[in-house]
Amino acid sequence: MKVRLFYHRGTIVIKGNVHVPFAKWDERSKSYRALAYKYRDIVEFLEQEGIEFEDHVFDNAIPSPIYDVEFDFELRDYQKEAVERFLRFKRGVVVLPTGAGKTIIALEIIRRLSTSTLVVVPTLALLEQWKDRLSIFGDVGEFSGKKKELKPITVTTYDSAYINAELLGDKFFFLIFDECHHLPSEAYRNIAQMSAAPYRLGLTASPERADELHELLPDLIGGIIYEKSPEELVGKFLAPYEVVKIHVPLSKEEKELYKRHYEVFMSYIESRKIKFRSLEDFQRIVMRTGSDENAFKALRALEQARRIAFNSKKKIEKLRMILEKHRGEKIIIFTRHNDLVYAISKKFLIPAITHKTDKAERREILKKFRDGEYKAIVSSQVLDEGIDVPDASVGVIISGTGSSREFIQRLGRILRPAPGKERAILYELVSAGTSEVRVARRRKSGLR
User: Fold this and answer.
1) Same domain for 204 and 265?
2) Phi, psi of 92 (to 5 degrees)
3) Count of domains forming the chain
4) Element (DSSP H or E) covering residue 161
5) What is the dihedral of CA 249, 407, 161, 194, to 10 degrees?
6) Residue 23 and residue 38: Cα distance in Å, rounded?
7) What's the confidence (pLDDT) of residue 9?
8) Where does a domain end: 273, 288, 310?
9) By three-state DSSP, how is residue 247 classified?
10) pLDDT at 394 over 70
11) 356: how many CB neighbours lie within 10 A of its CB?
12) Is 64 inside a domain boundary?
């Protein structure tokens, strides 16, 4: 009996008298089954063993066109290298800093493969951005909460792809995961596991996750096949830059209030003999809050202490000095909390962008910033990831997390070369004598 392969609800069904190492016996269907992402391994195994088989896995795939199009841009040397590296392995992660043109690499690979492609992105804003870039190939499908249209090239969000993983799993030969560090989370990894797509590309500025789940990426997409740090591209492709850390003292009142809240937290972890050194330690405290009221009070006190450090009044004074020093230059101001975004916006009459800013308003603000009508914008974390932000020469981090990815993305916002731009500068405002000093040190660890 000839072996036959089928796709069924996120799995590969193997009919026939053969045992495949990647599959388990399913008594109900009297066949071997494996998660769909093992399709490529299964086919390679059967071919190596000389076993004849009928492949019906992609019987319902969207027909693959040939994309014979001319781009209006030329790939840089490192982008060509990344494309060739991917075509050699047909899977893997490309790690490049923000502003280095990861999307262009994906466009060239789509053209070279000329096969049905699903692009998975974290936000609706990125979905629209990708649709616009992909329109060079013709009509682009959107699979989201608003639309359910599958076309040879379709863009979806991680949320929609996860909910519909079984449906999408046999429709596309090529998967692109933008900001692929999201993929290993417990829910999103199903997108990759329930898809039979043999070709997989991950794009990110920094694949590492604090929970170390990035170690799953080689299995889900492939390992890192190409990587360049900001330093390797500075000069020829990215603007030279300088990072200036400024320690800002708290006021007397802020210092006393910070100390009072922080001591509540420290008292708790010392009484419980908890070593507060990692994300896992923090998560253990979070887990205790359900049954330990003191754990809840300790975490609330820590958050209040951090807010004091992140939002100190003297940081605003220092920001005023930076704005005056760089008057006429394009400046992006980054904060962690929306309330500070709005406070800065109101005080300095600077346009603000948060997750509450609707699409039309955000587009108008970024257009006027690009055209030079606005010289500065202030945002929380909404501009950290993926959104195509016009070039700026100055960045100011008022507050942020300890994530090295966040730091690299914020740095990338000012690294795009532009006419007359000789050098970019990124200011970090850090409250002296607070836990923010450690936070700032930790986020720099990923800059290599």
Assistant:
1) no
2) 140, 175
3) 4
4) helix 158-163
5) -120
6) 9
7) 94
8) 310
9) strand
10) yes
11) 12
12) no
Q: Which domain holds residue 22?
A: 3-55
Q: How does DSSP assign 178-208, residue by residue?
A: ETGGGTTSTTTHHHHHT---SEEEEEES---
Residue 62 in domain:
no
Residue 61: inside a domain, yes or no? no
The predicted-structure confidence for 207-260, as pLDDT tens digits, reads as follows: 988 788 999 999 999 999 999 988 899 888 888 889 999 999 999 999 999 999
Is the pLDDT reported for residue 447 higher than 70? no
Q: How many helices (H) and strands (E) does the chain have?
A: 17, 18
Cα–Cα distance measured from residue 19 to residue 14, given in angstroms and rounded to the nearest whole number: 9
What is the chain's length? Answer: 448
Antiparallel, parallel or unpaired: β 11-15 and 31-35: antiparallel
* Residues 293 and 331 placed together within one structural domain of the fold: no
pLDDT at 416: 76
Q: How far apart are CA 375 and CA 214, in angstroms?
A: 37
Written as six digits, the tokens of 88 are: 């050699």
The tens digit of pLDDT for each residue in 344-372 reads 999 999 999 988 888 889 889 989 998 99
Q: How distant is the alpha carbon of residue 109 from its chain centre?
A: 20
User: Model-level pTM?
Assistant: 0.86
